[in-house]
Design a protein that fits this description.
Elements: H1 30-39, H2 42-46, H3 65-83, H4 87-96, H5 105-116, H6 124-135, H7 149-155, H8 161-167, H9 173-176, H10 182-205, H11 211-214, H12 218-231, H13 236-265, H14 271-276, H15 286-304, H16 307-329, H17 336-349, H18 351-363, H19 367-378
Helix pairs in contact: 1-4, 3-4, 3-10, 3-13, 4-7, 4-10, 5-16, 5-18, 7-10, 10-13, 10-15, 12-13, 16-18, 16-19, 17-18
Bound molecules: magnesium ion.
Length: 384
């Protein structure tokens, strides 16, 4: 680390450590080691073929969950360095935050959650934790990636009280209303900064949004005016990029300065002080938060509910429902290893166990794998 950590930063020497003790880490910090394990996981590689708003085959230039996660990590690290937080922990949480996402973005998540309603529902944050705790299977001595407590806790960014009660220590804060580390709070905000801005970019590129439309949003208009005043006639592509880079910068700078002020006002000195706060400490100033909310509302109305996006989402949901019904009705259709696991969990937990394995299988699919599997299951002309 180039500079000394702030006293309220996560400190690995005082961490609650790993579930399975592995001792010292040699030349890497423990959180660096976590980040490296995440990068080398199968679930991380799958993010390349999973999407947020668009479906993977809609175009090669749109963000995927992989490039999204890299952008989140980049923004989080910039801010972490400025606030003297633990960059490696921020990076680990950022890179892992979407590991549990289903194929087909929000539509896939909603569909799988609906399918899983009778079995306790499906939450992608809890699934990301399940991926790193249970589903990655390649180490001889433990299941999962055996990550540090703070990394696992940060990955579990939201969680229902019912699920928190089942998850134990790692989800305790949702029951006791305590906060996670500043590093995890920061990864959460960086997520938001990243997707709002890349969705503007992708939305314009896909011609689902226009610059004129976006100018109804004050955050965009303000920075777009600045770009036009400074450069005059530049191409729409240059306008798009010059504007979003300025918006990102404004959000990042505001987050840093406002958080510094909040930390000073609340007299935060240690990580324990951070945890004891009623609300997260990392955040935007009220004025910028209002502008950011306006942008979010705009994207929700104009992009996520755009006719063209909506039609694709309905198709995606249909695929998820069909897959789930087929597998839950006849687990022998699952690949042999998942079938064996379904039988094992079913003997322990009954039908909930079977449903959990079906959800694991579907959540792990990429967009294209899900479409292909759907065809394999339902098109009799497909041999395999
Ligand atoms: Mg995300």
């Amino acid at each position: 680390m180039p500079t000394e950590l702030a006293p309220y930063a996560a400190d690995e020497t005082r961490s609650r450590g790993r579930r399975h003790d592995e001792g010292g880490s040699g030349h890497r910090s423990q959180y660096q080691r976590d980040r490296d394990r995440i990068i080398h996981s199968a679930a991380f590689r799958r993010l390349e073929y999973k999407t947020q708003v668009f479906v993977n085959h809609e175009g090669d230039l749109f963000r995927t969950r992989l490039t999204h996660s890299v952008e989140v990590a980049q923004i989080a690290r910039t801010i972490a360095r400025s606030l003297r937080l633990h960059e490696d922990l921020c990076e680990a949480v950022s890179l892992a935050h979407d590991l549990g996402h289903t194929p087909f973005g929000h539509a896939g998540q909603d569909a799988l959650d609906a399918c899983m309603k009778p079995y306790g529902g499906f939450e992608h944050n809890a699934q990301s934790l399940r991926v790193v705790d249970e589903l990655e299977d390649k180490y001889a001595e433990f299941r999962g990636l055996n990550l540090m407590f703070e990394t696992r806790e940060g990955i579990l960014k939201h969680c229902s009280k019912a699920r928190a009660a089942q998850l134990g220590e790692v989800a305790e804060r949702f029951l006791t209303n305590r906060q996670t580390t500043l590093e995890a709070q920061l990864a959460n905000r960086a997520d938001e900064i990243a997707y709002n801005n890349h969705d503007i970019d992708d939305g314009l590129r896909a011609r689902l949004l226009t610059i004129e439309q976006l100018r109804s949003v004050s955050l965009f208009r303000r920075h777009h005016d600045e770009v036009l005043a400074r450069y005059g006639a530049i191409t729409p592509k240059q306008q798009r990029h010059e504007t979003t880079r300025r918006i990102i910068n404004t959000l990042v700078v505001d987050l840093i300065t406002h958080t510094q002020r909040t930390l000073a006002e609340a007299r935060i000195e240690t990580l324990d002080d951070v945890r004891a706060q009623p609300l997260p400490l990392i955040g935007f100033s009220p004025a910028v938060r209002a502008e950011n909310d306006e942008l979010k509302r705009f994207l929700y109305e104009q992009l996520y509910r755009h006719h063209q996006v909506y039609r694709m989402m309905v198709k995606a949901k249909r695929v998820i429902h069909a897959l789930f019904e087929a597998f839950i009705g006849d687990p022998k259709l699952l690949p042999p290893d998942f079938h064996a696991e379904a039988r094992r969990l079913e003997s322990d937990e009954g039908e909930h166990g079977r449903a959990r394995v079906v959800a694991d299988y579907i959540a792990g699919m990429t967009d294209r794998y899900a479409l292909d599997e759907h065809e394999r299951l339902f098109d009799p002309r497909r041999l395999r």
